[in-house]
Task: inverse folding
């Protein structure tokens, strides 16, 4: 027999996760502590410990909450260039306009020094690459890419400059740049 979860537990967890996400956005990932979440929500630290035995488990769940995967349903727009442009524009939109866009840079920084965060980031990236493979598969079938093209390598070449421009160089990510990037990648 499956037991129903007490709705108060769901509300408490949701409240704590939202608080952790807001703290990440406002102050950074290292400022998320049991004490800071408790102070913001009124949830006791002992309750937080019961739900998340260590702070990384709370951080991991918070990131998973904002990083809901995009639809894995793929339908080609008819050309590799159009499909890659849609992929990149979607990524730019997510980086600029969603909670994930505020949290992702914090996770990337944390992954450099924390093994659990590194694993989470790797799982996240691998899932997104897998969801995007149909773009490359379609282009191979249509003859736009060689049969030996490695989907993961191609997709990394497509999206990595977005992260570099945004997070490292502070360069604009506008439609003109996307068109130039896609043109050079797909030519």
Result:
């Amino acid at each position: 027999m499956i037991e129903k979860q007490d709705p108060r537990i769901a509300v408490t967890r949701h409240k704590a996760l939202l608080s952790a996400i807001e703290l990440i956005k406002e102050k950074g990932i290292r400022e998320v502590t049991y004490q800071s979440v408790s102070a913001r929500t009124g949830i006791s630290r002992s309750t937080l410990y019961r739900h998340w035995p260590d702070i990384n488990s709370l951080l991991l769940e918070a990131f998973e909450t904002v990083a809901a995967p995009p639809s894995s349903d793929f339908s080609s727009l008819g050309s590799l260039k159009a499909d890659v442009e849609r992929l990149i524009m979607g990524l730019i939109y997510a980086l600029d306009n969603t909670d994930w866009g505020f949290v992702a840079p914090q996770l990337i920084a944390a992954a450099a020094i924390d093994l659990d965060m590194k694993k989470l980031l790797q799982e996240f990236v691998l899932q997104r690459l897998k969801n995007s493979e149909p773009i490359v598969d379609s282009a191979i079938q249509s003859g736009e890419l060689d049969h030996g093209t490695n989907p993961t390598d191609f997709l990394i070449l497509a999206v990595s400059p977005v992260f570099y421009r945004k997070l490292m160089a502070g360069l604009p990510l506008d439609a003109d740049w996307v068109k130039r990037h896609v043109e050079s990648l797909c030519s």
In short: Residues 70-186 form a domain with the Tetracycline Repressor; domain 2 fold (CATH 1.10.357.10).
